[in-house]
Amino acid sequence: MSEQMQQKAPGTGTDITLIGDEHVRIYQETNGETGYLWNGVPILLFTSKGRKTGKPRTNAIIFTPVGDKYVIIASKGGSPTHPAWYLNVLEDPNLEVQIKGDVFQATARTAESPEREELWAEAVKAWPNYDVYQSRTDRKIPVVVIERK
């Protein structure tokens, strides 16, 4: 497991093996001591309500801190469709967020121009692959802003 969690420069030799249920479990069990850094970038967990089931859904995702906000990107690797988590957040923007051992309530919103472009640039500095993902799809990849309540 520790080999999969080794720190790497962002976007180099990307290891996608732990973004998913196992990553969430390990992150929660260790308060982010394992799983906070992934491929050289920070990861947060957020729990949203499933739009179809109403059940809580927890996701691990790269984030970029910008001031007192946290920025996440609904890229789905450049897929033509939005990730399911983004559709859930559109339906109900109330989240529980975990950054390492800090767990808090938050709200999410989709950034609009010109804020979107500014935040996209910050996110790309942290994870250059976002530009690659955008080149793979015709959809404008959403930039999501998380703010503490």
What does this structure look like?
- The protein is an alpha+beta fold and 149 residues long.
- The chain has a single domain (21-148), classed as Roll (Pnp Oxidase, Chain A).
- It is 24% helix and 32% strand.
- It has 4 helices and 8 strands.
- β6 (94-99) and β7 (102-110) form a beta hairpin.
- The relative contact order is 0.19.
List keywords for this structure.
149 residues, 24% helix, disordered N terminus, globular, Pnp Oxidase, Chain A, alpha+beta
Kindly report the average pLDDT value: 90
Q: What Rg do the Cα atoms give?
A: 14 Å
Low-confidence stretches: 1-14
Percent helix among the residues? Answer: 10-25%
Head-to-tail CA distance between termini: 35 Å
What is the count of structural domains?
Answer: 1
Biggest sheet record: 8 strands, antiparallel
What is the CATH H-level superfamily? Electron Transport, Fmn-binding Protein, Chain A
Going by helix content, strand content and strand pairing, the class is alpha+beta
Could you tell me the number of beta strands?
A: 8
Order of helices and strands: HEEEEEHEEHHE
CATH domain topology: Pnp Oxidase, Chain A
> If helices are DSSP runs of H or I spanning 4 or more residues, what is the number of helices?
4
**Class in CATH?**
Mainly Beta
Percentage of β-strand residues: 25-35%
General shape: globular
CATH architecture: Roll
Summed up:
This protein is of the alpha+beta class. 24% of the residues lie in helices and 32% in strands.
Blueprint (SSEs and pairs):
Layout: H1 21-29, E1 37-38, E2 41-49, E3 56-62, E4 64-66, E5 69-73, H2 84-91, E6 94-99, E7 102-110, H3 115-126, H4 129-135, E8 143-148
Antiparallel strand pairs: 1-2, 2-3, 2-6, 4-5, 5-8, 6-7, 7-8
